[in-house]
Amino acid sequence: LTQPQRNTLLRAVEGGYYSIPRQLSTQDLAEEFDISDQAVTEWLRRAINTLVDNSLVAAMEEQAEFDDER
Known about the structure:
Elements: H1 3-15, H2 26-33, H3 37-69
Helix pairs in contact: 1-3, 2-3
């Protein structure tokens, strides 16, 4: 993750962006970071995509390699 992605994602989680009901909006985050709402959305999307690629996809690939060795 880039530093801006990490900071935005951490603040989103801490602030309740992923809570139901949502406690923080992308506009709130945009104002905090002095960037556009679109930039916040893009950073969050890219951060989540990177985390999934680096954790879930990597774990699935490792499991497939392990299964192939058996």
